[in-house]
Every structure is written in C-alpha cells, then in structure tokens.
Design goal:
- The complex is a heterodimer of chains A (about 500) and B (about 400).
- Chain A is α/β, with parallel strands linked by helices and about 500 residues long.
- Chain A has 2 domains: about 100 residues, no CATH class; about 300 residues, TIM Barrel (Alpha-Beta Barrel).
- Chain A has 19 helices and 15 strands.
- In chain A, helix 6 links the parallel strand 7 and strand 8.
- Chain A is globular and about 85 Å long.
- The two termini of chain A are about 45 Å apart.
- Chain B folds into 2 domains: about 100 residues, Glucose Oxidase, domain 1 (3-Layer(bba) Sandwich); about 270 residues, TIM Barrel.
- In chain B, the strands form 3 sheets. A 7-stranded mixed sheet of chain B has the order 1-5-4-3-2-6-7. A 7-stranded parallel sheet of chain B has the order 8-9-10-11-12-13-14. In chain B, strands 15-16 form a two-stranded antiparallel ribbon.
- In chain B, helix 2 links the parallel strand 8 and strand 9.
- In chain B, helix 3 runs parallel beside helix 4 and helix 7 packs parallel to helix 10.
- Classes of the chains: A alpha/beta (about 500), B alpha/beta (about 400).
C-alpha cells in the first residue's frame, strides 16, 4: 500500500539470532492527540500539533491516521509519533506537547514588554498612507505633556517584565525631542529603584536628526527605527514632505547613526504601496546598499489616511503575496551568493514553526498582544492596547481605547472588563474560522485590523485580508521547507533559531 | 569516548595471610612514603623494604625473595606477576581474599578510571560493547564505596558505568554521597539508560543527595519508540527513558544524551536531532559516537556497520539542527576525514591512547594530530575510506 508511505528501513536489518527484529517492537494500537490539519498542494496534508510542530503526509493516509489503522511499520507512523500527533503513551506525549506549548507562550507570563509613548502627532511629512493621521507641524496641542509622560512611566515600572522597551512614536516623534530626553532621563532615574533592563527606541523619519540628538542617543544608548520604502523615487513618492527630500534625509540619517553609534543602532521598516509591488528586488537592494542587515517586507495596514486616501484598497493579498515571494526569493539568492541578509516576516514565522521559542511580535499573538504585549500612551493621555488601537482612534473609533492616564489606574485597566473581554474574544480557540485552522498555531489575532475592516474584533475570516495574507505566506514557507533545496532549508532553520 | 571496560590486568603468583572476607582494597605506596589516610599496600621490591610495614594492611611483593620474607610479617601478602609490574604508587588495587587475584581498580596516571558498578542491565543493546550478564555482583558496590574513600583529593572526575548503574537503587545514591563527601571536587559522570528515572521518587532522592557536579549520560537512539526499543531490545524502553529525562530535568540533574551511529540509528538522525531540540532542549550536551566492534558490536558488526561517508550528510544535518538550536554537540570516535564541516567542528579526539590507531595513509594527513583515529577493532574497515586532509 504505497499510499501509506514507506516502511521503515530497519525492517531489512538481520541481527544475530538472539536479537529480535524491529517488527517485534512496532506495537499496534495508538491514541490520537490534538492536532489540526489542512490540505496543501501536491496531494499533501499538513499536520500541526498545538506547539506548532508540523509534518506533511500524503492526503490519502489521513483517513487511516484518524481511524487508528496507520501501519506501525511505516515511516509516517514514526513521523507523526515524533511530533506527538499519535502515541502509544498519550500521557507522556501530552506532557511533551504541553511543555512545548508553555515554552512558546512564555511571553504571556512575562507580560507587557513594549511601551509606546506618542510624543506628538505632529509631522513634517504628508504621506498618503499615514496610518496615524498626523497633524501639521505647528499644532502644539498634539504634543504629550510631561505630566502624562510621568504617569505613563509609572505604568512601565508596574510591568512585571524584567526587560522592557520604551518606544517613542509620532507623528514625527523627534519634533518633541524635549519630551523624549525628559522621559529617558526620568526613566533611568526611576529605574535605580527597579533595576529593569530598559531599551529605548525612537521611531522617526530622521528628518529632525541633529548633533544634539546624536550625542544624547550616544550617551543614553538609544536606538532608532526609521521608515525606508525603497529607492529614492519610490520612497519620495510614498513619503512627500516640503523639499521632496524624504529619501535623502532618511539615508543621511541612517549613515550618520551607523558611523557615529554603530550599525546595530538603526533599523528601518518599509511599507508596501501599490507602486512598490513591481520592485521587490530594488527595495531589497536599497536596504542592502545602506548596510542594513535585513528587511521586513510589510504590507500596508488599514488605518488612518491609508483608508481615507484609499491607498489600502489599491492592492489585495494576492498581489502582495506575489510581491513578497519575489522579495523573499531574492533575499534567499543573496544568501546563496554569500551575502547574509534576513527577511523578518519569514524569520518570525519560522521561529514559530521550527524553534521552540515564542515571539514577541505583537500582531501574531494568541490571545492578541493587546495591552499584554504592547501598550500605547497617546499624546493626549489616552491609553490603547496597541499601536493600531490609537490609529483607529484617530479615525474616530474608540473601541480599543482602554482608558486615560488621568482617570484610570494600571489595575483598573489591566483587570478591567474592556481589556479582558477583548483578550477573551481574541483567543483563537473560540474564534470561528480560527478554531479549526491548522495555521493558527503560527498565527495570531488582530482585533484592530478586523475592527477597521469588518467593524468587528473577530470578523469573518473568509473575507479577512489578515487571514489570507498570513496563510498565504505560511504556505510559501512550508513549500520551501518541504520542497526547497538544501540551502534554503538550512537558511530557514538558521533564521528560525536566530536570536 | 568508548565504553571502557575495566583494566583487566589481574594476576598474582602466590599469596599469604589474606584472612577472611571478600577483598582487600588498598592504595599502593613505596616504602617510606609519608603516612596517609586509609588502607595502604606496601610496594616491596626487596626484603629490606618490609621494615616500612607499619601502617600498611597489605604487601605487594614484587619478587619471590620479598614474598618469602613478607610471609613472616603476618600481613596479607601477594606476589604479583609481570602483568602487574607497572603498578605505581597511588594506584588503587583490589585483592580477593579467597584467590589472591589482584586487579588495579584505579590507575593514578589515567584521567578516566571508570567504576564498573554492575554487569546487570535491563536493556540488551544490539551494539553493546560490554554485554550484560545476569549475575549477583552486588559486592561491586561495597568495593566502589571503599575505593572512592581512597581516591586522591585532587581526582578530577569519576565515571560510573555498567551494566545499568540505576539497578543498584539506593546503592547508587550511597555512591553519590560517598563521592560528594570524600572527593568533593571530582565531577561524577554516570552512564545510565535512564529508564529507572521514570520513578520520580528515585530521581528526587538522587537530586537530594546533592552531589555538586553530577551528570548522567543517557542514550537515545531514535525519535520514536519502535526504533529505540529495537536498538535497546526492550519493549517500552523509549517511553521510560523519555519520562526519565523529564524527571531528571524536573529535579535539576544534568544530562548528556548519547547516540551510537550504526545501521539502526543513522536513517532518522535529523529527526532525532529535531526531537531533542524540541522536547529535550534542556539537556547539557549531545554526543554522537562511532561504532566500536566490541561485544555485541562485534557479533552484529556486519549488520550494524555503515560506511560513515554514507551517513555523514545526515549527521551533518543533525548537527546543524542542534547547533542552530543552541545545543552543545560532540562527535566521538570518528576520524575527521569522513565528517562534514559542521561535524568536524564538533569532533573530539576521544579514543583513549591505548586504543587509538592510525592507518599508513594517515601519515600524509595534516589533521592527524587533532584526529581521534580508529579503534583497533574497526581500523581495517576504514582502509578504503580515509581521505587524508591536505
């Protein structure tokens, strides 16, 4: 019965007479443990255990697997036993799986790591796709006050996590650099008592970067995260500002930071617009030429001006996936030529698929990372469970507003009905469409996305771009892991365990 | 790293006044050595040496004249043969009182002096280099306890091997306690198939013995029950060993996983590596070991032997999986020239001096000095396989 796979090659071994053959140890009768499955291309079925470990088997053998008739002599039996999809000792297998699930969910126990301070909503850029609905540079009422920053800091130190990150966002966060400075110094002061490890990141378009900022960043170990959409023409078309020199400013800033503070102190993020779709290679090359170690090929999110200006509607998941695959293939080629370069989205998913560590990436958490992965303190003192939550708010949707620094306490927000019910409904185990999806073990819930697109935090997954994009991407990766060449498999494995 | 059998140099020509009981265990000293704690045996080369007899519980007479003179002392005496003439001060010996048969248990100048704690075993591995025997050898525990008491204070490490040491139950725990109390700076490495650790209570007792530097070397031959059980020829062994590993982890005891490479283990090496990285990431290191043609390894050799060049790609994949996962991995008993790059980086010059050999072709190899060479027992199988590295 070839459809049930190859027999174990050990069956052919002939030891001395006093030894028994392998069939003596192939005990019939096995139990099923929880797993999900999905059909893949090429007659294969994907089997995934709750810890995200997977194997593929011929679709024809699925029936016998679940009926309990899979021959114990087969390699498929061994493959599935190896990931505890089946076992003749279900209690032991269950213990192994739960250990792995616990390790993957470690970030839940660690609790909130990322604390976002929106220092101002003002910005010098006028990007069509702006997801936060920036304000013009002169409007001072869009700045965060010291009083609110002080209160927000008290939240940072209430987090049980030892390692926390404070990220400054905008608008253009550095237009209110006075506040950034104040927060960094104040946090260090307060930390004398708490002894946490604090990382500081400034999300910025780098336009305001000057000598003062650089020396402060040097003295206080600040990191920069900037936007770089690709080659000059693309970047400037996506990110207009007076002077039409956004690209030059970003490039100059990146090089300046690298030389002055070190390569590891600046990273860049790209956003895919319709114009980007035809130039994945050029975009990657841009990152490469600036000495950046990798790229995060990111789709556009449906918030702010991205919706108002219909930028978001200009391409669909399928077009984005095609763009992504071309970009990823090019990155693999670079590595094959001996040029180390990393693609963060694939790396993130590979971590979930192959390593036994979880990730802290907020958009792919189950339950969602709302407030327990990241928390956002808006310029006006309002508190959101995610960056996307405040983006929604600028679109007059306060569904993800969890409270206000002036009127709410850490305890009232974290144990409040609003957050708890948001987390509750974000659990895949109870979400229609997610609960039986084989890909869910690598995926997450994104309530903000579904509120923006479907006016519902759970949404209908059949029509969810979040769902089709992530599932499509996972299929691309599985295909490479299963059918790719040895180089790609090796590279992917190294990415999965990259720290 | 090989499964080391005890030094079998054991012969005496005559004995006298050995008294009753099982055995004498004593450390050899030259005449006139300063006094030391514990049982001492005098290395006597001339009758005159016997004037130093005070404080010794046995005499090792190196010739007939000395033996005759020693008989007059009333102290237990053996006349040792040429086979034992290399006995040196600081070596620890056992003399059976009933036969006078004498054996060196600890050779001071060897770094590794494994204690064979029992020949009994509940596995029956197809490549076992020291096939188990179902005998009552419980005296070995008492002997090991007494030997540990005699070890030098600066002994760097103690190896316990078998058979299956955990079959001793509380006896094994007594040994860990003795080692902790008498040679607290020595690390203890104990081989075990890990099955008994499925008993959480037993494992907890070992942890509570509180040895400061204890590690178990536990073999795992597959990522699935049928293949592992086949290799160790014991039903249910895989599940028990995995439970045992989880219990060792639970009680904070350090673990080395070992896998011998042969026809029944090499096919699923990458799967085994993935299994370890996923389920047993807490182990301290992993050792892949070349096959030695000893014991069952010899009688099943034609079935078990695989040209390492045929499995080196799988070994390479397994090692890079473990390396990516951050597991410390080593390769023992395989010459460098049959290994891929990742495996070479993990290779250890492991075969003990008196066992390792090289082939004529090795003389032109630039890596000879860092290569473990071959076991005498498998050397000729490599004759057409070696590719001197230039």
């Amino acid at each position: 019965m070839p459809i049930l796979g190859q027999n174990s090659p050990l069956r052919k071994l002939q030891l001395r007479a006093s030894f028994k053959n392998v069939d003596h140890y192939e005990k019939p009768g096995y139990g099923l443990l929880p797993f999900d499955f999905a059909r893949l291309q090429g007659g294969k079925t994907l089997i995934v255990n709750p810890a995200g470990e997977f194997r593929t088997i011929p679709t024809e053998s699925l029936q016998s697997v679940v009926e309990g008739t899979l021959p114990t002599s087969s390699e498929i039996y061994r493959d599935l036993e190896s990931i505890q999809a089946i076992s003749n000792d279900v209690q032991l297998a269950g213990e192994l799986v739960s250990n792995k699930v616990a390790a993957k969910q470690e970030s839940l126990r660690e609790f909130t790591g990322l604390h976002i301070f929106v220092t101002t909503l003002r910005c010098d850029h006028t990007c069509q796709y702006c997801q936060v609905s920036r304000r013009n540079t002169g409007e001072g009422s869009y700045d965060m006050s010291k009083e609110h920053a002080e209160k927000a800091l008290s939240w940072v130190f209430k987090s049980p996590r030892k390692v926390v990150k404070i990220e400054f966002q905008g608008g253009e966060s550095m237009l209110n650099f006075t506040l950034i400075k104040w927060v960094v110094l104040r946090a260090k002061e307060l930390n004398k008592e708490h002894g946490k490890t604090i990382a500081f990141v400034i999300a910025t378009n780098l336009t305001p970067l000057d000598e003062d900022i650089l020396s402060f960043a040097e003295a206080h170990d600040l990191h920069f995260s900037t936007s770089l959409d690709g080659p000059e023409s693309l970047h400037n078309a996506n990110r207009p500002r007076p002077g039409k020199n956004s690209y030059q400013k970003a490039k100059d800033g990146i090089l300046r930071i690298q030389e002055r503070l070190g390569r590891d102190r600046v990273s860049a993020l790209m956003t895919t617009t319709q114009k980007s779709l035809s130039m994945p290679k050029e975009i990657v090359d841009e990152y490469l030429s600036l000495g950046l170690d990798g790229i995060f090929l990111r789709p556009l999110s449906p918030y702010g001006f991205a919706i108002k200006t219909k930028s978001f509607k200009k391409y669909d998941s399928r077009e984005w996936l095609k763009f992504y695959q071309e970009g990823l293939d090019y990155v693999i080629e670079l590595n094959r030529q001996g040029i180390p370069f990393y693609e963060y989205y694939a790396g993130l998913l590979l971590k979930k698929m192959l390593s036994n560590r979880g990730t802290h990436y907020v958009d792919l958490q189950n339950p969602s990372g709302t407030a327990i992965g990241a928390i956002v303190f808006n310029y006006n003192g309002k508190i959101y469970g995610s960056d996307e939550g405040r983006m929604l708010a600028e679109m007059e949707n306060e569904e993800l507003c969890l409270g206000h620094l002036d009127t709410d306490t850490y305890e009232s927000v974290y144990s409040g009905e609003k957050l708890l019910s948001l987390l509750d409904i974000s659990m895949q185990e109870g979400s229609p469409g997610c609960d039986q999806c084989a890909f869910r073990h690598w995926c997450g819930s994104d309530p903000a996305y579904h509120i923006a697109m479907q006016q519902d935090p759970v949404g209908h997954k059949t029509f969810s771009g979040f769902c089709s994009r992530n599932m499509g991407l996972m299929k691309i990766i599985i295909d490479k892991l299963e059918n790719g060449d040895d180089f790609t498999k090796k590279l992917f494995r190294a990415w999965a365990w990259r720290r | 790293m090989e499964t080391i059998t005890m030094v079998t140099l054991s012969d005496t020509l005559a004995h006298h006044s050995l008294g009753s009981g099982d055995s004498i265990i004593a450390k050899a000293f030259r005449p006139g050595s300063p006094p030391r704690q514990g049982d001492r045996a005098l290395l006597a080369a001339t009758p005159a040496d016997l004037s130093h007899i005070a404080g010794h519980s046995a005499i090792l007479a190196l010739n007939q004249d000395t033996f005759e003179a020693a008989k007059q002392t009333g102290v237990a005496t053996v006349l040792i043969s040429d086979k034992l003439s290399h006995v040196e001060e600081g070596d620890i010996l056992r003399i059976f009182r009933n036969t006078g048969s004498t054996r060196i248990l600890i050779k001071k100048k060897h770094r590794q002096n494994p204690f064979l704690l029992t020949e009994r075993c509940n596995n029956y591995c197809v490549m076992c280099s020291q096939p188990p025997r179902d005998i009552d050898d419980s005296y070995l525990v008492e002997e090991a306890l007494r030997t540990i008491s005699l070890l030098d204070q600066d002994t760097p490490e103690i190896g316990f091997t078998g058979g299956e040491p955990t079959l001793l139950g509380d006896g094994l725990i007594r040994l860990f306690n003795r080692a902790k109390n008498m040679v607290p700076n020595a690390s203890v490495h104990c081989l075990s198939n890990g099955r008994q650790f499925k008993d959480a209570e037993f494992t907890r007792k070992i942890a509570e013995a509180g040895h400061p530097d204890l590690m178990f070397g536990v073999p795992l031959y597959a990522d699935n029950a049928a293949d592992h059980d086949y290799v160790v020829q014991a039903e249910g062994a895989f599940n028990e060993t995995v439970k045992g590993l989880l219990n060792l982890r639970r009680f904070g005891i350090r673990i080395e996983i070992r896998c011998v490479l042969h026809s029944a283990t090499v096919d699923r090496l990458p799967e085994l590596a993935r299994y370890i990285a996923k389920n047993l990431i807490f182990v301290d290191h992993i050792a892949f070991m070349g096959l030695e043609a000893m014991g069952f390894g010899k009688s099943n050799f034609t079935t078990l032997w695989v040209d390492p060049n045929k499995y080196s790609a799988k070994l390479e994949e397994a090692i890079s999986i473990l390396r990516d996962a951050g597991c410390m991995t080593k390769v023992y008993n395989l010459p460098l020239c049959v290994l891929g790059d990742a495996s070479r980086a993990c290779a250890v010059r492991s075969i003990s001096d008196w066992k390792n050999e090289y082939l004529p072709a090795c003389d032109t190899c630039t890596s000879k000095s860092s290569c473990c060479g071959f076991f005498a027992s498998t050397k000729h199988h490599y004759e057409n396989l070696v590719k001197p590295i230039s």
